[in-house]
Design goal:
disordered N terminus; about 60% helix; mainly alpha; single chain; two-stranded antiparallel ribbon; about 0% strand
Length: about 325
């Protein structure tokens, strides 16, 4: 490791954490260079984005989790699992730049481990650096191609304690998402197809079907979009991704869009639903209504949620198309 960040997020600093990584031109990390004091990212609309304080109980649990992850890392700093869990735990606090540096350290130590690129790619999306996300996630996909898929342990387990995602599905999901957020709907399609090839449960099915359906509708490929909806039924046993399930049923005409619309939701899943409803209006020809809904979403909190990021991207495209 060739350098350490001199300024860390408040929580990480309080816990004595100092992640080290290569310089930006070697490791691909920015270290937050050029950002305002305390900011994690610049929004797609040019606004600095700062970590949102968690509720006291949540923050206390996060601190305990990082203590455990840090102890495991200190006991064996070359262990891939210890590096990944430290990065994940730090990332859950909103200290995305610190998490990126941890995964960069992991890449330096384990350049052939696709998990490192998968997790760093996710956090590049969080900080709106989509090209870097695509680079990392594409490399992760290359590294795991032809390998047996593996269940990815949950950092924040669902109510049943049953993990619902895998390494390969998460790589393809986030790679497709990064391209979708750039407006490259055509480029996202192969990743949706690759995800579907490793789908093994209803949660995976509804997660990918939602974004896949929207991309096809944006491309005007309505018949193919309708085919994506065919396996989705109301009686699917969905554990986590109930928001995506409800949206898909709305696309099928089985739920009313107005019943799903809740732009004030502070829950990332609720924001994802709001984004899906707004975009349904967009590709059905109601651009002005969709734009107003996106702006309502951006009035809320939770800027790290994918529905929020996607709403930013939509407004940025609309403003660019209107000449600002």
């Amino acid at each position: 490791m060739k350098r350490c960040r001199t300024k860390l997020g408040a929580l990480a600093l309080a816990l004595g954490f100092a992640a080290c990584a290569e310089p930006a031109d070697e490791a691909g990390t920015s270290g937050g260079d050029g950002l305002p004091e305390g900011a994690e990212a610049i929004s797609l609309l040019g606004e600095p984005l700062y970590p949102s304080p968690a509720a006291a109980e949540v923050a206390a649990q996060q601190a305990r989790d990082i203590d455990v992850a840090r102890a495991d890392y200190d006991a064996n700093p070359d262990d891939a699992d210890a590096i990944i869990w430290l990065g994940r735990r730090v990332g859950y606090t909103g200290a995305f730049r610190d998490a990126i540096e941890i995964f960069s350290e992991g890449i330096e130590k384990h350049p052939g481990d696709g998990r490192m690129y998968r997790h760093r790619g996710h956090r590049w999306i969080s900080v709106r650096e989509f090209d870097r996300a695509i680079e990392d996630l594409s490399h992760a996909a290359d590294l795991v191609r032809g390998e047996e898929d593996e269940v990815e342990p949950d950092g924040q387990p669902n109510a049943r304690g049953i993990p619902t995602s895998t390494l390969q599905s998460n790589i393809h999901y986030h790679l497709a998402l990064a391209r979708y957020l750039q407006g490259d709907f055509e480029g996202a399609l192969p990743s949706y197809e690759n995800y579907r090839a490793v789908t093994t449960n209803p949660d995976q099915l509804v997660a990918i079907s939602h974004w896949w359906y929207m991309a096809l509708r944006r491309l005007g490929r309505d018949a193919e979009a309708a085919a994506v909806l065919e396996p989705v039924t109301a009686d699917l046993d969905v554990i986590e991704n109930t928001s995506y399930h409800r949206l898909l049923l709305m696309y099928k005409g089985e739920l009313d869009a107005d019943d799903l619309w809740d732009p004030a939701s502070g829950d990332p899943a609720g924001v994802a639903v709001a984004y899906g409803v707004a975009t349904w209006h967009l590709y059905n020809g109601r651009e002005a209504q969709a734009a107003e809904m996106y702006r309502r979403i951006l009035d809320g909190s939770g800027w790290a949620g994918f529905g929020y990021i996607a709403s930013e991207a939509e407004i940025a495209r609309l403003e660019a198309g209107a000449g600002g």
